[in-house]
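Input for the complex:
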Amino acid sequence: MGKRRTVLLMVGVLAAVSLAGCGGASGEKTGAKEKVRLMVWSPSEDQSKDSGQWLQNSCEDFAELHPEWDITFVYGIADEATAANQVAQDPVASADVFMYANDTLTIMTDANALAKFGGKYREEIETTNSPEVLESLVKDGDLYGVPFTTNTWFMYYDKSVFSEEDIKNLDTMLEKGTVSLPFTNSWYLPSFYIGNGCTLFGDGTDESQGVDFGGEKAAEVTDYLIDLAANPNFEIDADGSGLAGLRDGSINAIFSGSWDANAVKEALGENMGAAALPTYTLNGQKKQMTAYAGSKAIGVNPYSKNMVAAVELAVYLGSADAQRTHYELRNVIPCNTELLEEEDIAADSLVSAQNDTFNRTSILQPFVAKMNNCWVPVENMGKGIRNGSVTHENSLQQTEDMNEAMNSDGI
Amino acid sequence: MAAAKYKSAKTKRFVNNTIVHVSLAILAFIWVFPIVWVVLTSFRAEKGSYVSTFLPRSYTLDNYIKLFTDTSILNFPRMFMNTLIIAFFSCLIATFYTLAVSYCLSRLKFKLRKPYMNMAMILGLFPGFMSMVAVYFILKAAGLTEGNLIRVALILCYSGGAGLGFQIAKGFFDTIPYAVDEAAILDGCTKWQVFTKVTLPLSKPIIVYTVLTAFMAPWLDFIFAKVICRANSDQYTIAIGLWKMLEKEYIDSWYTSFAAGAVLISIPIAILFLCMQKYYVDGVSGAVKG
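Predicted:
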């Protein structure tokens, strides 16, 4: 008798638990409002009091726009560069909405951890962004995020040393002042090769075409780089030496991105200039330095329990209003096409430098899997030139070796 | 004649001593050099990660002050407390595990003894982080990957495997004569009493060694903390915080504070070692009575 009662009790408890479980999953309704819990991940500056709590404020604004939901926000810290790894590790226990850099897109799509945007959301995103930016978030025809900024590097220079005319050409600049570039960093060095017609995976998406960093056109560039490294007015930027040089005046121009804007402003003050990449003179001809570029975007977790709210929030965080406050609070350079036409933003040299680089002097950084083989060989080329093992005598062979290494899967 | 001989022996000794001391001084300089550099950098007033001079041009305490006051982006005091709590409890549990397992394997004769030692040997050959993702999912299934329970999860991670690291302590226990145990048992001790009242008091050096290693492992670990904390920034340990300071967005403004943090994390280890050193010396000098 006692036993049977216990069994009945247990069945009852189990039933109650499972029912409660269902209730939690489908979202309880209190009155007319639907309870929604959204977990949002962003870099810590977006949530810090010192820089205006952009994320919290934007999320609260979003909640006001949607009175039909009673939203509880849960915030977590994950910067754009590493969010993909966190999400791919365990999508089910990850944020509903997060920010990521577009070169990490395949990490998440491979783990089936990134939702596609379609229908009216995709249309809305497409009308407010340039095709180049959108292209950085499209894989096999599907759109995987709401872009909120472009991600590339450009040039900071001292206006008291270089004129508007000087900064159009690297070699002219080298006659007037000292220039520093992260020569041994393979995010920067390929810009010279790409400028002289070297290509990566066809238009950047066709893995089968491979990398073309070989032949006469690449060897010419290697020869140019050997001379560049030997130029007394050129300094190799490593471990922050470029920025330190700007501070003490020994260096007059560096190549970096928007993350260093405040430090450069502090170092140069009124003389701070920012511009798209210059050309360089190769055998008498002007060639355009061409950077890798990408974007940062807001992604949505396909395992989100409140899909509609999550997608709406992502679109809101990437909207013109949110991008404007992001720009005002944290200098995050907007990419919304309507916003870029507004006067104060169009007048900001930092914004025009970055977007000019993105539109004119860059290629989309390929995110095919084989791109992973392309970093170390270029870095080794930079180091080889620095330490003198790559010379004019063996430059052709060394360049071919680099090309071969970039095209091989071996380590 | 005799005086001359005496003098030459003295000179010889002087020359020998000079050579030894100079070479020791050079080696000491090389070893201490990086540490001095980190300490100097932590007091450096110039910003940025790169400086062209070895000695800072001006000194300041601001880097330390910044660590404890500028908590909006990287909350160092909280990370420090998190790590201290985790390391303290891991240390207690892991020390007990290690010593208990070592005692059993050294003193008790049971069937699984040999197989267990072989198994531990083989398991010890695999790097711990191989099982990292599996550990994460097990902890998640147990509900330990959210909020403050992350600390419990990390304590479990750091102390759970301690029973496999018994080799050194067991080797030490083996040197204590069995006759001591037998005498204690004749006097009416249980196995537990033999362990706590006879073996442990005779093994201070190895206890000190175990405590030190058990404290340092969680104090310095990065990889498990990173995988288990994920986006919960309020649970970050110091290792994650210091790593964050070197990311490209922060490195320029946080580099000198990073050095300050590196100096600060060495303090608890130094204190622990200084406190334990006394017993360490006592243990070595008071040899085991046979």
